[in-house]
Amino acid sequence: MNTSTHISLETLADLADKRAAPDVQNAAMAHVSTCSACDATLRRLRELIVAMRSDRSEDAPRDVLLSAINIFTREKQSALRRIVATLIFDSRSAGPAYGMRSLRSTSRQMLYSAHDTDVDLRVAVHNEECTVTGQIIRESCASGVVEISGATGSAETTLNELCEFALPAVPVGNYSLRIRMPDVEIQIPGLELKD
Hints:
Elements: H1 9-16, H2 22-32, H3 36-53, H4 62-74, E1 81-84, E2 86-90, E3 107-114, E4 117-126, E5 129-137, E6 145-150, E7 153-158, E8 164-166, E9 170-171, E10 173-180, E11 184-193
Parallel strand pairs: 1-11
Antiparallel strand pairs: 2-3, 3-4, 4-5, 5-8, 5-9, 6-7, 6-10, 10-11
């Protein structure tokens, strides 16, 4: 090995991590013994590897990471599209389905449209509490958060890999529903949840 040129960082990292082949290790160590710059870099790499192996920290919970990401994405909201969704179907106001059994459904279905996104909501009321579940129908819903808020309560959840969600139960009342994704925020104002 030529002592007039320095050893590559990749080779020094292999030396520090004891992954270098024996012939490479011998030649590199001969160079390191005569080159103070390569010797200093090798020492720093060894210290870094020891520090990384002794690190016992744990990853933050997913909800904490999403909250932190949302804090920083709020600063970039000038590029974020905000769309108010339009109700296109409500099972409460749908006429009878002739030829079908006329049983009263225990849940209400609503379908909203917002540009290239549809929102399918299911609302079930039990003991003066409403459970809102649904699915976002669009190409991608990565990192999506669904939030419902009103005078009588609020709740928040994340979308799963199928763009589905289930919010915790909230008291009957009037609410706003907001779906936040990296490129769009969909709002459903005036969502009346009642029996």
